[in-house]
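Researcher: I'm preparing a figure for a lab meeting and need a structural model of a single chain. I don't have an experimental structure, so a prediction will have to do for now. The sequence is pasted below. Please return the structure as C-alpha cells so I can convert it later.
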Amino acid sequence: MTTTRDRDARGRPLVAVTGLGIVTSLGQGKAANWAGLTAGRSGIHAITRFPTAGLRTRIAGTVDFVAAEPFCAPTLGERLATLAAEEAVEQAAIGRPGDFPGPLFVAVPPVEVDWPQRRALAEAASGGVTYADLLAAAATGRFRDWHDLFSFGTAADRIADRFGTIGSPVSLSTACSSGATAIQLGVEAIRRGEADAVLSIGTDGSVNPESLIRFSLLSALSTQNDPPEGAAKPFSKNRDGFVMGEGAAALVLENAEAARARGARILAFVLGCGEKGDGFHRTRSSPDGAPIVAAIREAIADAGLSPDDIDYVNAHGTGTPENDRMEALGCSAVLGERMRGVPISSNKSMIGHTLTAAGAVEAVISCMTIANGRLPPTINYRVPDPAIPLDVVANEARDASVRFVLSNSFGFGGQNTCLVMAREPRRATTSTSPPGTRGRRRPTSPDSFRPPIRTADSAPMRWTSPTARPSTISPSGWRTRAHTGSSTARASPTTRSPPPCRRSGRRPPCR
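Model: Understood. Here is the structure written out cell by cell.
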C-alpha cells in the first residue's frame, strides 16, 4: 500500500515531537542541560536537604534551585513537571494559554506522607501515637489539605487545570520505565485517532531520607560518596550502584499531519514503542533477559526498522552491576555483533537516576542528540568491564550523524519500555504489517490499516468530557472548555502500578 507523507508503512499517523522541556540537577531548560551534558559535567553532589550522618549513601542529583511549598516530594515533583511543561508548550506554540488541545499523561512516583508531615501529625496527637490518637488528630481538620497533597492523582489534576488539557488526566507509575510509558500512551492515543496533540510528562522529586534508606537496604545505591561526581559509573567494571536524582521532562506530541498543517516545527519523531513485563522478581531482571530483548525488538519493529538501522543507544545504564550487564545482553541479542560498534551512553552518569522521570528525561535528551548531532558521554568510564564489550561514549562527547535512537527504560518488577526516536521517518511505499501485529507478517489489504474502532458509530474515540452536552463539542470533536469546568470534566485519574509483594502484601517503592 502506498503511504502518504505523514503516515507510516502501516498506515498509522506519524507522531511528531514539537515541544521539549527538561529540568535536572544540571539546571532548568534545554540549553542548560545540553551544555552540561555535552561538557561532561556532573549534577551529583553531597545532600544538604537533610542530615545524612550515619547513612551509607550521602549523595544525590537533587534539584535544589527550585522552591516548593510545603516542601515535600509531591509538591516538588509537581513544580518540576510544571516547569518542564511550560518550556515544552511554549516551544510547540500550540493552543492558547491555559487551553492545550489534547490529553495529559503524567508519570509520577508513588505518593506517601513525608516524615515532616508524619511528625506534625504525631505531635498533634494527644497522649500517644496510637492509631486512634492519629485519627483524633486528623479529625481536628488541621491537616485537611494533606488529603489532596498526598493523593496519587493530585499532581496530574493540578497540571491539567494549569494547562487546560482535555479530558481526564492520566497518572501512571511503571517504576523506572514510567516516563517512557507516558510517552508510549501519548503515541498510542494519536495513532488511534483519539487526539491530534498530547502532553506527556515524567517527574520525580523524591530524594528524601526514607527513599534513600529503602534503596540502600536493597544494596542498589553507590556508596562511593567522595567525590560525589565520580560515583555514577555505568558500564564500568568498578560500578557499585546508582545515584538517586531528581528532575522532570515534558514532550508535546502531535499527529505529524496536524503539526505541519499549523506550521509547527517538527523536532523529531517517535517512531516505535516496545513494552514487555516479566514479573520475575520485585527488583531483579529475568536472568535470561528475554523481556528486555522482547521490548527492544518490539520497539524497533513498531518503528518499521531493522536492528541495523539503530545509530545510537541512550541506555538505561543505571550503574548497578546486574542492570548494566542485562542491558548489554539485551542490546547484543537484538543488534548482534554490530552492537560492539553502536555508540551507547548513559545520561545517569551525570544527572543520577531520575527514577519515575528517567524515561521522559532521556527521551528529551535523545531528541536533542538527534538535533545537534552530538552524543553526550558516559562520564567516569575509566575501568571498562570486559564482560560488557560495548562502544561506550567515554568521558567526552562525540560528534555523530544520528538518524535513529533507541532509548531504553527498565524498571523494578520487570517493567521494560523502549522507544525509537528519529530525525525523519523512513520513507516506505509498501507495508507487510498492519497496525497491531507488531511485526508479524501476513497478507495485507486496505481494510487492514483502519484504526481500532472505539465507539458504536464506528468513529474513533475522542478525548472529550463524559458529561459534555452535544453543544459543548467542537466541529473537530474536542470539548470546548467554556462549557465544562475542570472539576466536572475529569473522572478519577487512571493509575498503573506494580502488584504487591506476594509475601508481605505491601507495594514496593516503584522506581
